[in-house]
Amino acid sequence: METGCFLYRSTARLGSDRDLRAILAEARDRNTRLDLTGYLHCEDGSFYQWLEGPPEPLAEVATMIERDRRHQDMRYLLRGTQAVRQFKDWRMGFGVSDPGTLFEWIAERGISRLDEARLARSILGFLLSEPVRGRAEIS
C-alpha cells in the first residue's frame, strides 16, 4: 500500500509552552486514530513537520493544519508518496533546537536553500538524524 507524506514549514504562533503541549497532545491522539506518523521540529520560531500515512487521512490533517491559527505562512516543502514510512514508530516525535541549528546542519552539507527538492530531503535527514541536536520531549 502506498504511503502519503508531506513536509511543511510554518511560522509558529504560540503564546506559551502550553500551546505547544496542546499541539503535541492533539497530534499524538489524532495520529494514533488515523494511523499517521511523523515528527515536529521547532526552531527559530518556525515549525518543520514531516507527516506520513494513508493518503485520505493525511490530506484531512493537512487541511486542519492549514486552518490552525497556531500556524502562519504555511508552505509545503515536499508532498508525495513513499514505499516505507520514515517514522514508523513515532506517532509524533518532537524536537527543539538552538537557533540556527537546522540551517547550519544543511549548510555543512553544501545544500542551497534555492534547491527546494534537496533542501526538503535535507530537512528530512536532519529530522531523522540521531540524535537531533537539542531533541526534547514535552509531556
Describe the structure.
The longest helix has 18 residues, at 17-34. The chain has helices at residues 17-34, 55-67, 101-108, 116-128; strands at 3-12, 37-43, 46-53, 71-82, 93-96. By secondary structure, it is an alpha+beta fold. It has a five-stranded mixed sheet with strand order 4-1-3-2-5, with helices on both faces. It has four helices and five strands. It has one domain: Alpha-Beta Plaits. It is globular, with a radius of gyration of 14 Å. The protein starts with a strand and ends in an 11-residue tail after the last helix.
Descriptive tags:
Alpha-Beta Plaits; five-stranded mixed beta sheet; 4 helices; single chain; alpha+beta; globular; disordered C terminus; 139 residues
* Helix and strand sequence: EHEEHEEHH
Shape assignment: globular
Query: How do the strands line up in the largest sheet?
Result: 4-1-3-2-5
Overall average pLDDT:
86
